[in-house]
Automatic annotation (TrEMBL):
Enzyme Commission identifier(s): 3.6.4.13
Enzyme class: hydrolase
Keyword tRNA processing applies: no
Domain Helicase C-terminal: 295-501
Positions of the Helicase ATP-binding domain: 25-191
Source species of the chain: Drosophila melanogaster
Reaction equations catalysed: ATP + H2O = ADP + phosphate + H(+)
GO MF assignments: ATP binding; hydrolase activity; nucleic acid binding; RNA helicase activity
Protein name: RNA helicase
Membership in a protein family: Belongs to the DEAD box helicase family. DEAH subfamily.
Annotated spans, Disordered: 258-284, 322-367
Stretches with biased composition (Basic and acidic residues): 260-272, 322-338
Biased composition (Acidic residues): 339-362
Keywords, ordered alphabetically: ATP-binding, Helicase, Hydrolase, Nucleotide-binding
Residue window of the full protein shown: 246 to 1030 of 1192
Amino acid sequence: PVHRTTEVQNARLRLPILAEEQQVMETINENPIVIVAGETGSGKTTQLPQFLYEAGYAQHKMIGVTEPRRVAAIAMSKRVAHEMNLPESEVSYLIRFEGNVTPATRIKFMTDGVLLKEIETDFLLSKYSVIILDEAHERSVYTDILVGLLSRIVPLRHKRGQPLKLIIMSATLRVSDFTENTRLFKIPPPLLKVEARQFPVTIHFQKRTPDDYVAEAYRKTLKIHNKLPEGGILIFVTGQQEVNQLVRKLRRTFPYHHAPTKDVAKNGKVSEEEKEETIDDAASTVEDPKELEFDMKRVIRNIRKSKKKFLAQMALPKINLDDYKLPGDDTEADMHEQPDEDDEQDGLEEDNDDELGLEDESGMGSGQRQPLWVLPLYSLLSSEKQNRIFLPVPDGCRLCVVSTNVAETSLTIPHIKYVVDCGRQKTRLYDKLTGVSAFVVTYTSKASADQRAGRAGRISAGHCYRLYSSAVYNDCFEDFSQPDIQKKPVEDLMLQMRCMGIDRVVHFPFPSPPDQVQLQAAEWRLIVLGALEAAKTENTDLPPAVTRLGHVISRFPVAPRFGKMLALSHQQNLLPYTVCLVAALSVQEVLIETGVQRDEDVAPGANRFHRKRQSWAASGNYQLLGDPMVLLRAVGAAEYAGSQGRLPEFCAANGLRQKAMSEVRKLRVQLTNEINLNVSDVELGVDPELKPPTDAQARFLRQILLAGMGDRVARKVPLADIADKEERRRLKYAYNCADMEEPAFLHVSSVLRQKAPEWVIYQEAYELQNGDSTKMFIRGITAIE
Ligand code: ADP
Ligand code: MG
């Protein structure tokens, strides 16, 4: 029996799902797999585990709940423990490097990555009686893979007479990928809809869509606070830095002065200490981008500290260039939480004007005497600080939460009446050509925007202020976002799944499968790369095994070919160079070359730049690396100039695209941070003054490039065999590439064009329109000795 406090009991009774407990439990008891859909805040995450507990599901085995985000795993386990009056040793959580699970744990909240990892060692999940996959509408890669795996595990457990229940929970009704996919579930699982109380939300679009949405969010919040009646404000921006920036600005404008008397409503829980923390929090947020990087490093270092013990056994082994054998190492699935997105329609009223006199500029600033209780919310925030959104607001204050899209569906913040939505989110985008990923800010989907708006209608009728125009919403917002699994490059996915022990990726029952032909091609490329073993016996029906090198590659958060380059560089202490190269190679058109658009058509100025580059390449060891060395040198020099505040002049003088240079820098920082976070024995910095490599280093770098680009080899078309003079001239710079029928040409911008070496590797082949016909070019050339 569970002993809840009356306060908790009363709060529960207000949740719509409680009225349906009996029906929910009957459906679960009678079906192995059930889908539960209900609007955010209806009580799915906090109540369902309790229903199951009270129905006896935790008696012999555990109830497992997965969340795509760490924030939710921690917050929800604490909330459920509190509601059930049980210690955290019984209602616990486990995220990648942190947790409070004990042998006494009955209900276990975890990230989806953690459960995937458990399947590797215990395929039948024998410790669990039920698995709840929460937030399935987010379509995170790991949750999608879990759905596929569990569709097979559930019948297996049934056969063994130890049934496992699977509950898939979604905040939206868009679940047809689960219910109508007969490869996944032969019998479509029943769908339970939980009705939620949702008050009307009035939508206010802006006439214009400003670029600086953080500044706009600030202005809008001032107006709301100054003019509109009581009710909490929830602001959506895209990332931690924006959250901190906005929190600080709002706190400065509407300071919360510690009231002399009892300053806290209800249970008087906000102590002197809490106050301190708040100030502390503000002080530690910084606006200067350099400091922010530092701040990011600090966060990472803190995480690293706490993960030390987990890492002891997964140190990245040294690998030899000729011999990939490693001392017995095991792999670690990448268990990042999801950054983002998704779903579902609210009954929304539209209106194109800023109503309620909000366009009036007068009365701005802190004319408003009422203090604003401003709280930040994002994934990496400590759980105590996250928890403050649920604590009572100090007397006389208005609640204002500045959040990333964590608050879209994962966490329900109480008392929100106004939503300010920037309409953007941070997404991991993959470059189709290179497979390098970067976080970029994009518009959300219509479904996401409506989900965000819905957060304003939980307690009464609310308002949503969208910081963009209805035209942008209609024209630029997709209806729904694609499942993450279809946005990821398949090579990556293939290697990752194989490292998790999923052998038949091609036959895997994905809810939304990636392209099958592509999966097959990816397998082949991974074999060429040495990440998968070349098939040994022909009659075996098993797919090629993952090599040790493959396991190491999978730890780097980049495309496998770059992963291999990074893995090899690590051994030679060349990581800073390779990181720089990978970053530079992933940004298009770092060097201004006019010939890129039309072959040979060199604009004034381009010649000068070209000669400059030739001289860079010619001096010292640069011939060793060819074009990639030019890139390395360009980035090194530009960053140095940048650190002296001379980036624009330097770029202009040397024919570099300044915007590309800033992108390279961002990528370098990102990649460096991710490597520090994912690879245990590495602590990289981003040195603005990257010294050119020595001869010996350049030789190694060439070997590394060769190893990573082994399938992108080209050989010069042998001119001596060609009798026709015209034809000989036409093919002067032509190369035969491994998997192309037509020859491709060395681009005029290549520093190796004069030399035109017999064998080369290239970073990229691309096609250019040339009048009516097209012509293939290769870029990023390195000569093979
Ligand atoms: P769903 O999963 O359907 O979105 P939840 O179970 O997460 O809904 O939330 C149900 C209710 O519980 C919400 O009104 C939410 O505000 C409240 N709640 C959740 N966590 C806490 C907490 N830590 N403190 C107070 N209320 C909470
Ligand atoms: Mg939930």
